[in-house]
Amino acid sequence: MSNRAPDIPVYYPIFLDLREKRCLVVGAGKIALRKVESLLEAGAEVVVVAPDGVPMPDSVIWHRRPFAESDVEGAWLIIAATADRAVNAAVARAADACRTWVNVVDVPDESTVIMPAVVRRGALCIALSTSGSSPAFIRKLRMHLEREFGPEYATLLEILRGLRRSWEPRAKAAGLPDDARREAWERVLDLPLLDWIHAGNPETAEREAARMLEQALCERMS
């Protein structure tokens, strides 16, 4: 049985590939700037609509005028981040009319998508949400996770990604079944890889992980 209150939506978590996708941000204040920067980090093509505001990155297309309903056309994702609730509501209505995902900053009831708090360590991305119940709790949890997951996790994932690209095709060509390949990776992750990386020996971590994978191939061929 769920303890979720009936008025709290069950959000569907998803990660979007926004590379070269047009995303609209309405507003150009400090909060809007943070949204713009996160979209640019994801490789999006960002369009800003606002009469004025704080300086924006050079790659942003900025239409210095009030919002018009037609601005939502062609956008994959829309963020309403003005200080005017009426404008934000108008953005939400226009986005809903063209069936485009919209986030109204700090107003989840008018949004069709909410932005989680994020902890990034290279390819590792941890997204956090309380469905709008407690932003203060999310901030505290994010700070805890930022301490818990240090930069060594980014290095670990770089190593694993490189090994996966080189080893998986060979393993499949050798006829190693799915369960055997999965078991090989589990053996790799049982190694003290993070300890070696944290101690300044990423080469040891990569070498021992590669050795474990080669052992799995040798077992198959023997």
CATH fold-level topology of the largest domain: Rossmann fold
- CATH-wise, what's the superfamily of the largest domain? NAD(P)-binding Rossmann-like Domain
Order of helices and strands: EHEEEHEEEHHHHH
CATH class (first level) name of the largest domain:
Alpha Beta
Gap from first CA to last CA = 51 Å
Overall mean pLDDT score?
93
When the domains are counted, the total is 3
Largest sheet: 5 strands, parallel
Q: Which strand order spans the largest sheet, edge to edge or round the barrel?
A: 3-2-1-4-5
What is the C-alpha radius of gyration, as a whole number of Å?
23 Å
Helix proportion of residues, in percent?
40-55%
By CATH, the architecture of the largest domain is named 3-Layer(aba) Sandwich
Strand residues, percent: 5-15%
Per DSSP, the total helix count is 7
**Extended strand count:** 7
Question: Are there runs of 5+ residues with pLDDT below 50, and where?
Answer: none
The gross shape turns out to be elongated
The helix-and-strand class reads: alpha/beta
